[in-house]
């Protein structure tokens, strides 16, 4: 494991996925967790950490889900910053961020909109996840938490609008030709998650129904 990206969703995560792949990394993101059937495992991890139900995750459990990947990002991974730092002490941490108010507006027009679609698991809509995400101070608290537990020499605070230079300097990579990716605007997000919605409903309803609730558990606790 080389890079831990511990910022919240809708903070340039999909653009970062594309950029990291261009730099030669293999990121483990939310779509991978759906395709690989990992969401039920993350549900277990969140129940253990936030509800005291089951075994707390350590390196063995993290190794099981991140095998074959060398960077992680997107929920619920940021809720396990300390666990990732302990398991992979040679990794560096990126804290992808944006201002709270534009972030909340983006969440309301994308992620919360998607979770209100028919046939998303009812357990998600019954949790206080949107309310928890919708409190800007909670968003800021998460970033303070990551800063508090991460050694300064291992941390880069980054906004995707800064482009290639600070990212490549931090990772020790040459700057690629071309502009920094801008992948996940609002329309693309909703369109892409429409495909995930179809996947959840028609192809993997059981796993996604169990696993999508993991977001609600983690966010509600957060």
- Helix amount, in percent? 55-70%
Oligomer: single chain
User: Percent of residues in beta strands?
Assistant: 5-15%
Q: Can you list the strand order of the major beta sheet?
A: 2-3-1-4-5
Give the beta-strand count: 5
Estimated radius of gyration: 17 Å
The SSE string, one letter per element, is EHEHHHEHEHHHHHEHHH
Low-confidence stretches: 116-136, 197-222
**What is the residue-mean pLDDT, rounded to a whole number?**
77
* Morphology: globular
Structural class based on helices, strands and sheet pairing:
alpha/beta
DSSP helical segment count:
13
Taking the alpha carbons of the first and last residues, their distance comes to 25 Å
Largest beta sheet, briefly?
5 strands, parallel
Tell me what the structure shows.
- The protein is of the alpha/beta class and 222 residues long.
- It is built from 13 helices and five strands.
- The protein has helices at residues 13-22, 30-35, 39-51, 59-66, 81-87, 100-109, 111-115, 122-125, 129-133, 136-149, 164-171, 186-202, 205-221; strands at 3-5, 27-28, 71-72, 92-96, 155-158.
- A five-stranded parallel sheet has the order 2-3-1-4-5, with helices on both faces.
- Helix 3 packs parallel to helix 13 (205-221) and helix 12 packs across helix 13.
- It is globular, with a radius of gyration of 17 Å.
- The two termini are 25 Å apart.
- Residues 116-136 and 197-222 have low confidence and may be disordered.
């Amino acid at each position: 494991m080389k890079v831990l990206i511990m910022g919240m969703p809708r903070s340039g995560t999909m653009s970062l996925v594309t950029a990291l792949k261009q730099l030669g990394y293999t990121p483990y993101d939310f779509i991978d967790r759906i395709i690989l059937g990992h969401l039920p495992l993350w549900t277990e991890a969140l129940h253990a950490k936030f509800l005291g139900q089951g075994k707390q995750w350590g390196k063995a459990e993290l190794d099981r889900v991140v095998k074959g990947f060398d960077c992680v990002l997107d929920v619920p991974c940021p809720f396990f910053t300390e666990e990732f730092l302990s398991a992979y002490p040679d990794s560096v941490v990126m804290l992808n961020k944006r201002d709270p108010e534009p972030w909340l507006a983006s969440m309301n027009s994308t992620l919360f909109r998607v979770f209100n679609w028919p046939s998303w698991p009812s357990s998600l809509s019954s949790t206080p996840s949107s309310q928890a995400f919708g409190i800007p101070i909670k968003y800021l608290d998460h970033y303070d938490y990551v800063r508090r537990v991460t050694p300064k020499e291992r941390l880069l605070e980054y906004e995707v609008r800064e482009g290639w230079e600070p990212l490549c300097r931090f990772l020790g990579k040459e700057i690629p030709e071309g502009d920094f990716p801008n992948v996940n605007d609002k329309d693309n997000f909703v369109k892409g998650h429409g495909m995930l919605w179809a996947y959840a409903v028609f192809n993997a309803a059981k796993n996604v129904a169990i696993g999508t609730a993991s977001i609600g558990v983690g966010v509600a606790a957060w």
